[in-house]
Specification:
CATH superfamily of the largest domain: Fido-like domain
Strand content: under 5%
Radius of gyration: 24 Å
Helix content: 55-70%
CATH architecture of the largest domain: Orthogonal Bundle
Number of domains: 2
Distance between the termini: 62 Å
CATH topology of the largest domain: Fic-like fold
Structural class: mainly alpha
Amino acid sequence: MKKKEITLYTDPQSMTPLFPEKDAGVKELALELIKRTAALSALLHPHTRNAIALLLEPMNSYYSNLIEGHNTHPLDIEKALKKDYSTEPKKRELQLESFAHVKTQKRMKSLLSDDAMPVCSSVFIKWLHKEFYDDMPAEFRLSKTAEGKSIPVIPGEFRKREVYVNHHIAPAATAVPAFLDRISEAYALEKNTDLLKRVIAIAASHHRLAWVHPFQDGNGRVVRLYSEALFIKEGLDANGLWCISRGLAIHNKGYYSALHNADLERQGDYDGRGNLSNKFLLEFCEFFLKTAIDQVEFMSSLLDLDSILNRISKYVDLMSVQKEMMPETKYILQEAFLKGKVERGEAMRLTGKKETMARKAMKQLIDVGLLIPREGEIKGDLYINFPVKVAPYFFPRLYPKDIEATLMME
């Protein structure tokens, strides 16, 4: 029996609709996200906010890679960022992957500080892929074809082969540049004066970029980095205090289901006027924005001032019982959290202890990494810092329960 020929999309018009029609509910979600991210960003002193954002960068990598089935322990990610790699080949490969992800995030944020960088562009999307894959281990720079053949993934290069992802047949490889040009034209934030439509564009373009599947491998993580870049560019990342990947990983089944449904062609005469389903694009945008709002709400609850000061107090009480900290260190740590830093000379006032004991309390916080000096400074102020091993105490539920349990054993 002759095998049925598959017709591949070559015209970017086949990607329509690019925005959901009848989107009143999505606009309400976009407005809510704007309000909640603004409130979250204003909660903390900038130094404290930056310290928490640094803690969340490896977490973003952890969850984005977890969606792809790669589970790298947060402590191993922290070690990788210090170039402390395991001698076990599998663990080392995962560490290198995480290092590549965090490095790309950092460089991306630096690049986005230049307002001239168009995020919705082939140039930027290629740059993300190249940055990510340049430091990937050799094992992860190979992709399997449908026939089981291994082919190399070239960093920053669009795919040259046709791909089939589950039931989705991606556009023809030769047409990828044209589809990316259409994405750039439709979703460019700087060209759109409608704030709510720009927020909806972040959700809609997440699916449409995944649908095009521009690279041979690494599309999921590149698309999530791309979405993160759009949130940053639009000022919706609350200065790094939340990330979309955690929500997408927690609701992984819903995420893949929403992606799959939005791949479908129009479901009859009442399903919009484009080639693809308007109903399911609308549902994907709702899912994506609700997930974003859920993560902003989660971080806002964690950073409620009374709650976190209480968790700081309980942490020090626990360390005091274990003879690792003086009870009075809580006052230094709470001051540092509120102001982002603490003067070394303030230890006596804050603890009510004489100089020798006050210095000892300060040193205990330095030794555990909760207070750090500015690079190159010996006698300056000490800044709040959050090593990953303290995350379960101060920011419970950032990671899954089993991961938190191992962190608390450190």
